[in-house]
Structures are given as structure tokens and as C-alpha cells.
Amino acid sequence: MPGCSAPASRSTARLPSRRGQDAALPDPTAAGCLLARECTLSEAVYFDVAYTYIKLANNSVQKTDGGVGTEKPPRNLSANYQGSVQIFAAQIRWTF
């Protein structure tokens, strides 16, 4: 029977914190939410749709490399950043 056969699923996740924060992504302090739905169009055709939202926490990076006692010149990295990601996906499955 055609129609949406599965309830929407939801999940939230918080990735573990990481010592020595650097400028690499993905951000280990991100939190997100996922919504997904499957609809049955016929006995052999299914339609899936999903939406994901990831919120990056307000973070800062402070790094210093080189300088006195090393062969490298001093280098500094200082940044504050924040952001978010939104992903929408859809697919049609045909089974035979």
C-alpha cells in the first residue's frame, strides 16, 4: 500500500572533545541533528529523504611553533571561528 511507512527518526550527537585544539576540521565539539523518512510508493519503489544539521561550537585556536631554541622562525596561528552545516539528501530505490 503506498504511503509513508516509517516514522521520522531523530538523533543527536556530540563528538568527544579533543586536547590541543587545532585548525583541522571536522570540529570535535560539533553537535548535530538528523531527520530521516522512508515512503513506500509501491511494492518495489521506495522514496527516502533525510536532513542533517551540524552546529559548530564557537571555538578559538592559539598555536605557536618555532622561535628561540629551534631552527624554525616563530610562527603563530590565532583564530576564532563558528559555523554550521546543512545537508539534504533524497533517493529513490527500486527493488526487483
Walk me through the structure.
This protein is mainly β and 96 residues long. The protein has one domain. It is 0% helix and 61% strand. It has no helices and 5 strands. The chain has strands at 3-4, 9-14, 31-40, 45-65, 75-94. Strands 1, 2, 3, 4 and 5 form a 5-stranded antiparallel beta sheet that branches. The radius of gyration is 22 Å and the shape is elongated. Mean pLDDT is 74; it is low at 1-19.
Task: Note the main attributes of this structure.
mainly beta, 61% strand, elongated, 96 residues, single chain
Outline of the structure:
The protein is an all-beta fold. Helices cover 0% and strands 61% of the residues. The radius of gyration is 22 Å and the shape is elongated.
Helicity, as a percent range: under 10%
The gross shape turns out to be elongated
Rg estimate, integer Å? 22 Å
- Overall domain count: 1
CA-CA gap between termini: 17 Å
The sequence of SSEs as H and E is EEEEE
Number of beta-strand segments: 5
The amount of beta strand, in percent, is: over 45%
Mean pLDDT metric: 74
Quickly count the helices.
Answer: 0
Main pleated sheet: 5 strands, antiparallel
User: By helix and strand content, what is the structural category?
Assistant: mainly beta
Low-confidence stretches: 1-19
